[in-house]
From TrEMBL, chain B:
Family recorded in the similarity comment: Belongs to the Mrp/NBP35 ATP-binding proteins family. NUBP2/CFD1 subfamily.
UniProt cross-references to HAMAP family, sorted A to Z: Mrp_NBP35 (MF_02040), NUBP2 (MF_03039)
Quaternary structure and partners: Heterotetramer of 2 NUBP1 and 2 NUBP2 chains. Interacts with KIFC1. Interacts with NUBP1.
Co-factor: note: Binds 4 [4Fe-4S] clusters per heterotetramer. Contains two stable clusters in the N-termini of NUBP1 and two labile, bridging clusters between subunits of the NUBP1-NUBP2 heterotetramer.
Gene: NUBP2
Identification of the protein by name: Cytosolic Fe-S cluster assembly factor NUBP2
InterPro entries recorded: Mrp-like_CS (IPR000808), Mrp/NBP35_ATP-bd (IPR019591), NUBP2/Cfd1_eukaryotes (IPR028600), P-loop_NTPase (IPR027417), YlxH/NBP35 (IPR033756)
Keywords for this protein: 4Fe-4S, ATP-binding, Cytoplasm, Iron, Iron-sulfur, Metal-binding, Nucleotide-binding
Length: 323, 272
């Protein structure tokens, strides 16, 4: 018997909306159509958003943020990056020197409006371009660094609206030849706006560390920072209490200039760990201002050891890196 | 002119508008804005504070009015009065949040819209000074604020810095921002300039010293003064004591009173 056209049509698999070809017809229940609508809506809404894609060669991204300005994010980021490079989770102190496998670490200064990293890492100049038109990060103390500070003059303000900042952040993430990095530390600007959203939407982040001083006002914003990361599904590894106490160099009297233990209390409320406590020390400021971060210039000091300890705590809490 | 008549009425009663800028975060802009407002009030002026820091509104907490609500009236939002004699009024996004912990994770356009509303839709009434506290940086908030305030001819901007090099670098950029936008720089304040140990009176320059003064000299703008780090003030805030009462007793007060006087002197030839 000849196969008619109608017969052929009956044999062809039927394709349903939202799914691939299949033999099973979609049941006309309201639950499935609700779910289907939700999925479709999410698909359409996500069309405008950047796709989250990892940076090639970078194993894990660590973000240092706070919400509040001036709590020491950049200072902590620089010293933590150096500590991560010198440290390994299985390392011990042998004869007063930290020994172990060194890691390759990159440092990205995402503070487009007030880039502090160039000064703190003692780096200046414009980045070179590779043959593939990627920017080569500037390197010092073994850390690959990239910052807006290398792309604009030191006195020139970056007076940009959010949209331009978004595209600048994308370039600083993707158009840089990072190479093979174990960790990329990103120093965030203060606030909970465009930069934070752009970074978390663009790349997968292994963990965020929130830095704060014990002061009430700073904690208010640190809390918002933690809330922001929760909203964008970035795991918060813990809090760092910075500028915790000041010891007078003359009489050794301790003054809690910015309050006492506020960060510890906040951590308890939010169910987070305190990764470490850094006192207010003139040497930390002096060494950063002169571009010789304390972890490299005074590695035996208590401050440097505090940063190294925090780095170890971070490594302990990061998920096992891929590959 | 007709379209702006409604807008003009809300800021028409404000004699002088002052912006507090920095560029660097955490130098004490909000603290200085509040202290300046208190110092001006001490000098008998009626002051309003507009907190344009949408991501980190600190001022309601400092003045212990974070639980107050904002009410509506015919001409817009009524600012919150901080004291009994209604000589300090405050508007901040902190009053509009449901919970104080709510994070404002907004992109530029939304921030710009709210700032425009803050500037045109708040019924300030008659004020001698309106102090506008800004977030760090030179971004959407700053551009929108300066643009929206331009028709009202602000008195100018006061720049706050700490003495250390990284702060001074950012403030240098802010100075360029002011020049580019045609905003007059009233002067630079060097905050957290020196810490005097309460035990032995040894002065330690934790955040260095003199950076702000040098920058002012270098940039050719007036240097308004140094404000020291006062831990007692911070501690009293933490313990919930009244900032308005504690402030005149703190070691920062004389410096702030001096700065307020310089600003008042600067306005006297202009006042009608």
């Amino acid at each position: 018997m000849a196969v008619t056209r109608a017969g052929l049509r009956a044999l062809r698999p039927r394709v349903f909306l939202g799914g691939g070809p299949g033999w099973c017809p979609r049941p006309a229940s309201s639950n499935t159509s609700d779910e289907f609508l939700k999925e479709k809506r999410a698909q359409i809404m996500s069309r405008g958003l950047p796709k989250q894609k990892p940076i090639e060669g970078v194993k894990q991204v660590l973000v240092l943020a706070s919400g509040k300005g001036g709590v020491g994010k950049s200072t902590t980021a620089v010293n933590i990056a150096l500590a991560l490079a010198a440290n390994d989770s299985g390392v011990e102190q042998r004869g007063g020197r930290w020994c172990g496998e060194t890691k390759s670490v990159g440092l990205l200064d995402a503070d487009v409006y007030g880039p502090s990293i160039p000064r703190m890492m003692n780096l200046k100049g414009n980045p070179e371009l590779t043959s593939q038109n990627l920017m080569r990060p500037l390197k010092n103390y073994g850390i690959e660094c990239m910052s807006m500070g290398f792309l604009v003059e030191e006195t020139a303000p970056v007076v940009w609206r959010g949209l331009m900042v978004m595209s600048a952040i994308e370039k600083l993430l993707r158009q840089v030849e990072w190479g093979q990095l174990d960790y990329l530390v990103i120093d965030m600007p203060p606030g909970t706006g465009d930069v934070q959203l752009s970074v978390s939407q663009n790349i997968p982040i292994a963990g965020a560390v929130i830095v704060s001083t014990p002061q009430d006002i700073a904690l208010l914003d640190a809390r918002k920072g933690a809330e922001m990361f929760r909203k964008v599904h970035v795991p918060v590894l813990g809090l760092v209490q910075n500028m915790s106490v000041f010891q007078c160099p003359k009489c050794k009297h301790e003054t809690h200039i910015f309050g006492t233990d506020g960060v510890r209390d906040l951590a308890k409320t939010l169910g987070l760990d305190v990764l470490g406590d850094i006192p207010l020390d003139v040497n930390i400021r002096k060494t950063c201002d002169t571009g010789q971060p304390i972890v490299v210039s005074q590695p035996q000091s208590d401050m440097a050891k505090a940063y190294l300890q925090i780095a170890m705590e971070i490594i302990r809490r990061l998920p096992t890196p891929p590959g | 002119m007709e379209e702006t008549a409604g807008e003009k009425s809300n800021l028409a009663g404000v004699r002088h508008i002052l912006l507090v800028l920095s560029g660097k975060g955490g130098v004490g802009k909000s603290t200085i804005s509040t202290e300046l407002a208190l110092a001006l009030r001490h000098a008998g002026k009626k002051v309003g504070i507009l907190d344009v820091d949408l991501c980190g509104p600190s001022i309601p907490r400092m003045l212990k009015v974070q639980d107050k609500d904002v009410h509506q009236c015919d001409s817009g939002w009524v600012p919150v009065f901080v004291d009994q004699d209604k000589s300090i009024s405050l508007m901040s996004i902190g009053f509009l949040l449901e919970k104080p912990d709510d994070a404002v994770v907004w992109r530029g356009p939304k921030k710009n819209a709210l700032i425009k509303q803050f500037i045109s839709d708040v019924a300030w009434g008659g004020l001698d000074f309106l102090i506008v506290d800004t977030p760090p940086g030179t971004s959407d908030e700053h551009i929108s604020t300066v643009e929206s305030l331009r028709p009202y001819q602000p008195l100018g901007a006061v720049l706050v810095t700490t003495p250390q090099a990284v702060s001074v670098g950012d403030v240098r950029r802010e100075l360029t921002f002011c020049k580019k936008t045609g905003l007059r720089v009233i002067g630079i304040i060097e905050n957290m300039s020196g810490f005097v140990c309460p035990h032995c009176s040894e002065c330690t320059n934790i955040f260095s010293k003199g950076g702000g003064e040098e920058l002012a000299k270098h940039a050719g703008v007036p240097f308004l003064g140094c404000v020291p780090l006062d831990p007692q003030l911070t501690q009293s805030l933490e313990e919930g004591r009244d900032f308005i009462q504690e402030f005149p007793k703190s070691s920062a007060f004389p410096a702030l009173a001096n700065i307020a006087q310089q600003i008042l002197d600067g306005t006297s030839p202009q006042s009608s």
